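During the second half of the funding period, the structural biology subgroup turned its attention to how the target accommodates small molecules. The most pressing case was magnesium ion, which had performed well in the primary screen but for which no bound structure existed. We therefore specified the complex as follows and requested a full 3D prediction, including the ligand pose.
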Amino acid sequence: MVPFRSGMVVVGPNFCGREQEIGRLRAHISRCARVCMIGERRIGKTSLVHETVRRLRGHSLVFIDLLGVKTVDDVVRRIVDGIFSSATDSTFTRLARSFAALRPIVGVDPVTNMPTLSMAPGVQPLPDTLENALDYLSRLKNTVVLFDEFQALLSLPQEEQTDIIARMRSRIQLQADTPYMFAGSVRGDLDRMFFDHSSPFYKTAVRFELGPLTRAEFAPFLQEGFSQGNRSTDADLLAHLFDVCHDVPGDVQRLCQCLWDETSSGDHVGPDAIPRALQRLFSDEERAYAILLENITAQQLKCLRALAAVGGAASLGGEFLASTGIAANSSVQRALNSLVKKRILFRDEKRYRYCDPFFGEWIKHRRL
Ligand SMILES: Nc1ncnc2c1ncn2[C@@H]1O[C@H](COP(=O)(O)OP(=O)(O)OP(=O)(O)O)[C@@H](O)[C@H]1O
Ligand SMILES: [Mg+2]
């Protein structure tokens, strides 16, 4: 079996390192603090919270994923779904009774064979379901609540957004005994929700910035993965791998999967295998990348090309500006800002970077 995991939450033996972050998070949980966890896509936010709670004896996690919510009803449903998914033998009956008005459906999980609860598809949340659900959370003992992709609330229509954020805040602020985590990757949006003084959540949470895994902790973990399939590696391969992936753990593991598929038991996996692994990855992503390309202007492409040529990340110095081939600096700035709005690039401190480092590699490879 391929020992690398990507695109999923990793815990237990699949979770590497982060002892220090787990310790910090555990301290916040023991104080029932509210934590706003900010970090790039695929950096490991969701996994870190899952793993931390998993290691806390007697604690459980209510995981509420707000990705893609468009209406208040979607938000309420996701909260109820999160609560239902956390049902255990001891909470099942109480849960079914507390939410009887939503006519929960009892089923069986095909993998664990455990009973499950879910909201019937046609049932609408009631006007007080949100408050009831949040109150229910406050009564759970030793439970951590994670609102993941919390910034998605900002995509609700303005009036609904203001209303639901205010309602959530007013309930959550009364819950002194429940630790809440709010995680998200669209940095500016989450910052605005917690650190802009006009926001209802202003200063209600401690900021927890999550960076990449260090190479020192991640490299032995990956080497061990390769050795499970009788493949040897070297320091050059790992250095190259981390560079190509900008140290983003999810991307590193994705490329390791491709390296694994490109090699066989007994092989030495050196840096020369990376282009072949990328080629494999491109064949999966080709269509998605072509669609991205259709939606960008000629000047934006020039900027992407220049950025790809310097490894996918650059600050706006004279050298980079000249390398775009665009005469006016203000046009480069405009093109880069549009690419940030389209979530093709993002800004970290002073640098512009590809959200997906493999897209940059593809642009370079295709000589676009
Ligand atoms: N501690 C870790 N050990 C090993 N791999 C990790 C670790 N953290 C993250 N990863 C890798 O990154 C991938 C994404 O992890 P996760 O979903 O937790 O990140 P995220 O920051 O929540 O991502 P997103 O922004 O997409 O929600 C995992 O599937 C795994 O490949
Ligand atoms: Mg996540």
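Two results from this model are relevant to the next phase. DSSP finds 15 helices and twelve strands in the chain. The pocket of adenosine-5'-triphosphate (ligand 1) is lined by residues 5-10, 15-18, 39, 41-47, 185, 213, 249-250, 253 (CB under 6 Å).
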